[in-house]
Amino acid sequence: MKIRAAVLYEMGLPRPYTESQPLKIEELELDGPGTGEVLVRVAGAGLCHSDLSVINGDRPRPTPMALGHEAAGVVEEVGPEVHDLAPGDHVVMVFVPSCGHCRFCAEGRPALCEPAAVANTQGSLLSGAHRLHRNGKTILHHLGVSCFAERAVLSQRSLVKIDPSIPLEHAALFGCAVLTGVGAAINTAQVKPGTSVAVIGLGGVGLNAVMGSKIAGAARIVGIDMLEDKFALAEQLGATDTFNAADTKVAEEVRDATGGGVDYAIEVAGSEKALELAYRITRRGGVTVTAGLAHPSRQISLQQAGLVAEERTLKGSYVGSCVPRRDLPRYLDLFMRGVMPVDKVLSNTVQLDELNEAFDRLADGHVVRQVLEP
Length: 374
Prior knowledge:
- By secondary structure, this protein is an alpha/beta fold.
- The chain folds into 2 domains: about 1-175 and about 340-370, Quinone Oxidoreductase, Chain A, domain 1 (Alpha-Beta Complex), CATH 3.90.180; about 180-315, NAD(P)-binding Rossmann-like Domain (Rossmann fold, 3-Layer(aba) Sandwich), CATH 3.40.50.720.
- The chain contains 13 helices and 18 strands.
- The strands form 3 sheets. Strands 3, 5, 6, 9, 10, 17 and 18 form a 7-stranded mixed sheet that branches. Strands 13-12-11-14-15-16 form a 6-stranded parallel sheet, sandwiched between helices.
- The mean pLDDT is about 95.
């Protein structure tokens, strides 16, 4: 079938994107679903910094690639050997499929699925197949999803069925922002009741980390960002204190305010400087978590003696260390009961032809989560 989709042919084009037009809205040929695959009509797709990192070259990917990795939609057709989904089902798309049988999937760590890592790196579906083409040439899949499009074919292992009463423009945010942010607090950091948490970077993922910390029972939640216009929303969602990361003395100020540092610091800004700040404001014996993806060339420097003598912990968090089929229903239930107001992080909706302009807004940092409605 023919679909319209946003295709990236070249990374690193200059801003403003409204002029350089890195995303080309084109008509593609989409094959029907193969064995174990599903055709989904995309109802909502979130614009994430991970997409921006591919556009600007910080997260190198092969091209040409149809972008987008955070979405929800409605099943239209299922391929052979798909037994747990049917046309009409509502689903959330997950950007790391779980093969279910590799070592990490068997250990309950599907975010580290080995076949998924291979497929996502090469730009294919989990099976290794490609279902997108233009003029006879293959267009690669972004993280097995490619949801900046009217429709997408995905592995059934990239989909989680949800309650059809949940608004799809809100459900879309659960595929990345919620799983990554809430999961970083609950699964990776394992925030304990009565403790203190700092979140560095108050975008879509960071604000979900704030909500996750609140749900976990943190008594004090410190929000840190370079843009103070994000502080009011962070406070609505659970932050008890806010600090400007541009302040040269911010680390000392946070440590003074929290009596020597926080129990947990969660970095989601995707910057080595932000991670160094997170480490500096973590107390002795505390845990520093990073869920931000900086350019692969970026490195940090740590004092080894302090890591040892202070019994510090530094942990990476990918997809919030989540088990999507377990965690997504739980998080969606919290949302529907009003405990976790994810809808508050939705800034605005956009159309396919507005994507380049929307990524300019995201790069400026003055929006939280924009949702594409193809």
